């Protein structure tokens, strides 16, 4: 089944990887192609509105891109003002060529914004993917002007002031209406601050051959792409099957006062096709039946651990007491795939022997921390996690021999083989109690049905967000959407996708 899972996902590259691609394409007119592609976007954004387009050109190659944009817009009979505060003689070679071509075409640059400027569009070409520091005062002032102008802004490659690798803005940063990014996506456009700063995002590959992107280390997860290549087990084509065909999942959690968490996980697992789901409660006074989903089989956790499930979900509502520690230790010793969430992660963070057991286990492991749980696991602060979400996820994946999703806006997935993904589905409706329990249940159901861990995590995370998107599109949320609303929506999306697969 894993071999059949081959969706066409958009590649994502960090700056160092992009520099390698650029070097390999040396001699190709990449700046001209980038500027022309962005000028097409700018023309669409500015057409039908009077006034002068303001182009902000920086001192590096991003400024060169902006000068190409300005030259093309002038050729298409737009009025353009170009702000260039750098000495043209000190521009990098390609940017200097772009400046020369702009001047030869009749253009000129100015150092300051025209008095009482008003126009249909601002093009941000101040700084691109190389920026790793806060903007200097003179460029920060231009950013602040652009943001205050109440005019659409088109950012070239990345909004100026945004770290393209991390998505972190350490000072003033452009709040773009649209971003035209070149060659491929960058992590910082898809996670952390970047997800709210880029506006409508378009990718322009600059006529580089498809082979350029064949070995991309990272990918963006989009539900429409994943839905076209679902594993066969989710299509349910074979008829000679029974409930055992689709695996048995055990959910371990539910200390006293927190029995709802494992029930949410169990319900999600049933809705995503697990053949059977046992819910093992840490609490001795657990419910005898879940009247919301009576198909769930409810037991004490000790009993469930000895029943031979095909996959485990550990942690929803588990607590961090001695009983919880014993349950997780015994569960991790089992050679079956496992999802660790919530308190199971907190126990690993505070008990070195448990951490060693996790890192050494034979069964596939998925971890689903939010930033605070990731910080505990890495013995650092939440701010450090958020400064480089991709690096944090990689550290967890390599250190704990696990497939990891660092949850949040633009959830980051990292895998033990060094590959990674950033999820593009989801919305603020997911910021609600129990949402993580549902995600754990979805992932557990996929493991129980025999999916490889990387594919299980990819599908679960993207489907989780897509379910929230579908509900909001129908008017359910974002305010007031409940975690318990998600499983039905996820089920509907998977079945709709399966119907489309031949």
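Q: What amino acid sequence fits the structure above?
A:
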């Amino acid at each position: 089944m894993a071999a059949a899972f081959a969706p066409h996902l958009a590649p994502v590259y960090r700056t160092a990887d992009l520099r390698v691609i650029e070097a390999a394409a040396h001699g190709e007119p990449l700046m001209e192609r980038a500027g022309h592609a962005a000028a097409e976007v700018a023309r669409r954004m500015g057409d039908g509105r009077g006034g002068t387009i303001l182009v902000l050109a920086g001192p590096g190659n991003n400024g060169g891109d902006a000068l190409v944009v300005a030259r093309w817009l002038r050729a298409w009979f737009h009025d353009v003002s170009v702000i260039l505060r750098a000495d043209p003689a000190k521009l990098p070679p390609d940017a200097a060529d772009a400046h020369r071509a702009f001047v030869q075409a009749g253009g000129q640059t100015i150092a300051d914004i025209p008095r009482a400027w008003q126009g249909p569009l601002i093009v941000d070409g101040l700084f691109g993917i190389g920026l790793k520091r806060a903007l200097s005062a003179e460029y920060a002032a231009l950013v602040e002007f652009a943001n205050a102008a109440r005019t659409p802004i088109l950012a070239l490659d990345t909004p100026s002031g945004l770290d393209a690798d991390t998505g972190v803005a350490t000072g003033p940063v452009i709040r773009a209406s649209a971003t035209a990014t070149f060659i491929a996506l960058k992590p910082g456009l898809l996670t952390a601050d970047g997800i709210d700063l880029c506006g409508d995002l378009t990718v322009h590959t600059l006529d580089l051959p498809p082979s350029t992107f064949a070995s991309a280390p990272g990918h963006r997860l989009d539900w429409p792409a994943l839905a076209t290549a679902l594993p066969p087990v989710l299509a349910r084509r074979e008829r000679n099957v029974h409930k055992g065909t689709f695996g048995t999942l055990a959910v371990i959690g539910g200390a006293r006062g927190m029995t709802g968490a494992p029930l949410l996980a169990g319900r999600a697992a049933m809705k995503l096709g697990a053949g059977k789901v046992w819910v093992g409660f840490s609490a001795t006074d657990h419910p005898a039946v879940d009247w919301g989903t009576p198909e769930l089989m409810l037991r004490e956790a000790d009993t469930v651990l000895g029943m031979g499930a095909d996959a485990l979900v550990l942690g929803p509502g588990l607590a961090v007491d001695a009983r919880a520690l014993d349950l997780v230790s015994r569960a991790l010793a089992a050679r079956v795939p496992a999802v660790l969430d919530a308190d199971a992660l907190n126990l690993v963070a505070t008990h070195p022997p448990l951490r060693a057991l996790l890192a050494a286990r034979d069964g596939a492991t998925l971890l689903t921390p939010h930033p605070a749980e990731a910080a505990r696991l890495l013995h650092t602060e939440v701010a450090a996690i958020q400064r480089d979400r991709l690096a944090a996820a990689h550290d967890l994946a390599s250190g704990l021999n696990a497939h990891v999703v660092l949850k949040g806006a633009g959830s980051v997935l990292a895998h033990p083989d060094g590959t990674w993904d950033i999820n593009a589905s989801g919305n603020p409706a997911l910021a609600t109690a129990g949402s993580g329990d549902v995600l754990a249940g979805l992932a557990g159901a996929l493991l129980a049905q025999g999916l490889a861990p990387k594919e299980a995590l990819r599908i679960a995370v993207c489907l989780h967000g897509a379910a929230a998107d579908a509900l909001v599109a129908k008017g359910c949320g974002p305010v007031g959407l409940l975690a318990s609303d998600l499983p039905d929506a996820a089920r509907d999306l998977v079945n709709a996708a399966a119907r489309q697969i031949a």
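Q: And what stands out in the fold?
A: The chain has 19 helices and 18 strands.
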